Amino acid sequence: MLPIKIIGTGVYAPGKAITNKELLELAGVEFDIEKVEQKLGVYQRHMAHLRGIKETTADFATNAALNAIKDAGIDPNDIGLFIVGTDTPEYISPATTLIVQGRIQKKETWASSFDINASCASFAIAFDNAVRIMATDESIKYAVVTGVYNMPAYLRSDDNFGYSIFADGAGAFVLERNAENSEGYIDGQLLTDGTQYDYIGVYAGGTKIPVTEEVIKRNEHGLLSLQALPGDRNTRLWPMVVNKLLNKAGLKIEEIDHFIFTQISRYVIEKVMIELNQPVEKTSFIMDRYGYTGSGCLPMTFHHAVEEGKIKRGDKVIMMASGAGLAVGSNLFIY
After folding, report:
1. What is the pTM of this model?
2. How many domains does the chain have?
3. What does the pLDDT look like over 21-42, one tens digit per residue?
4. Domain that residue 277 falls in
5. Helix/strand/coil (H/E/C) assignment for every residue in 250-303
6. 164 and 191, same structural domain?
7. Tens digit of pLDDT for each residue in 98-157?
8. Does 179 lie in the same domain as 40?
């Protein structure tokens, strides 16, 4: 076990929540409210631009990180590592993390700062990387890992499905070296299939497809769904990765106190828990409050599970997220 523990958590979502009914009016879209609520479990979400709030990815990430730092009760200048996990960055370059570090520490420091983009699996993979870096560099006392999502900024005005699902939000962890070794990071398990890169994504804006007037006229900017995702993707992948991770760690599934999955669908999470033969009480849901917040999902859900007493110190937790591309990240740790 790597002696790195979570000592603080924080979340942030911009503005007043937008209900499904209000979304129809604000975004001028149409979608099946009953299906979104009953199957996906989404009743409201936060979207900065629909509230006229001039905040974007770096604002969400900074606020979540500051809330986590406050929760941890540490001096921000003692942070030696900043990582932001996101596929909706503030800019293509420089990294969003650099902006976050600059706003928090306000000067040149000996901290390391970089982004991780693995679609919606970005936070899980960033968390895994952070603990491994800290475990091999004793000069890093604290790290801040943030997952953030601003996909609504990439939605085209006619994207009825996108508006009903995607939302703005961020969550952050503050990590510390744990000398007692009673709490820490047990292991992670990653999975990749890059042959699926052309299913769903934001393809314009990089070097291959610059954003031009012609691209916009052809409606090829923003979030595009090029191929239908396999219907059983997560219900197949998540149990498989959970079992691989448990085998790797030498643990039985009954030893896990809580499971946190990316919040894309309540129905999918419930089905996965059945597949794992685990009670639904051992997982948490926040999509009813926040919608789908991509790489912000895991830390946001974990934060609320701790606040609500569903996760306590000493509990073994598994977090799991999958993202377009395909990337899957998972984490097993003792809180």
Report:
1. 0.96
2. 2
3. 999 999 999 999 999 999 999 9
4. 186-196+228-334
5. CCCHHHCCEEEECCCCHHHHHHHHHHCCCCHHHECCCHHHHCECHHHHHHHHHH
6. no
7. 999 999 999 999 999 999 999 999 999 999 999 999 999 999 999 999 999 999 999 998
8. yes
